[in-house]
Design brief:
It is built from ten helices and nine strands. It is an alpha/beta fold and 225 residues long. The chain is globular, with a radius of gyration of 16 Å.
């Protein structure tokens, strides 16, 4: 039940990922690391839209399950749809076609991001559904060109390390529909980090602390033009 309870987070009336990005930064609560899922999804209601990152695995009888816990992907998607929640799904060993089928069935294609298990599996994930956004890792200019070429007309998000140069963030901003990164090191001011990079989605283990620490006006948290 923990995987379902995680979806009771702050949300706005606009549902799609691109609509949320238009309104500002998306804070994504990660369920990985030392914190449990419920703790990771505690997001302050200070006006930031919310997303939850969940891991998938192949379950019994061909169904797809959500980790940790014993909830099925179908049940989590149903809860997410009714609570107007965005999801980032790490596919791991789950079948991309099965995951895409469940997402389509739940009418969540514009509110989900697929994260392939590795770079080699990215092509298979892109083929699974032409509309669901796919996160592609970008660590260099060459990666940026390859990601854009591989995605073609498919919506994709460039997933950059917070240690990447601001120039690389600006470069991928021209082609990718969204830019994802992880929380910057503690010694770096999150507000300053975001002010110098066009970031749409930031993944954190401590969403409450992040949202409350961002004291800049909301206009400063929209992605730079």
């Amino acid at each position: 039940m923990a995987s379902v309870a995680v979806l009771a987070i702050h949300h706005t009336k606009t549902s799609g990922i691109m609509a949320r990005i238009h309104h500002g930064l998306i804070v994504c609560a990660s369920n990985s690391g030392t914190q449990n899922v419920a703790q990771a999804a505690t997001i302050s209601s200070i006006g930031q839209p919310g997303m939850v990152r969940l891991g998938l695995t192949s379950g019994a009888n061909g169904q797809v399950d959500v980790e940790p816990g014993s909830s099925t992907l179908a049940s989590v998607l149903d809860t997410a749809r009714h609570s107007n929640t965005l999801l980032m799904l790490d596919l791991h060993d789950a079948n991309p076609l099965q995951v895409a089928f469940e997402v389509t069935k739940a009418h969540m294609r514009d509110r989900v991001i697929f994260v392939p298990a590795d770079y080699k599996s990215t092509a298979a994930v892109l083929r699974a559904d032409s509309k669901v956004m796919v996160a592609i890792p970008v660590n260099s200019e060459r990666d940026a060109y390859n990601a854009h070429r591989m995605a073609g007309h498919h919506p994709y998000a460039a997933y950059l390390s917070p240690s990447a140069a601001p120039s690389l963030f600006s470069m991928v901003h021209r082609d990718a529909q969204a830019i994802i990164t992880d929380t910057p090191p503690a010694k770096v001011s999150t507000a300053d980090f975001l002010a110098n990079r066009p970031v749409d989605i930031v993944i954190t283990h401590q969403p409450y602390q992040m949202t409350t620490s961002l004291t800049l006006p909301s206009t400063a948290l929209t992605r730079p033009e």
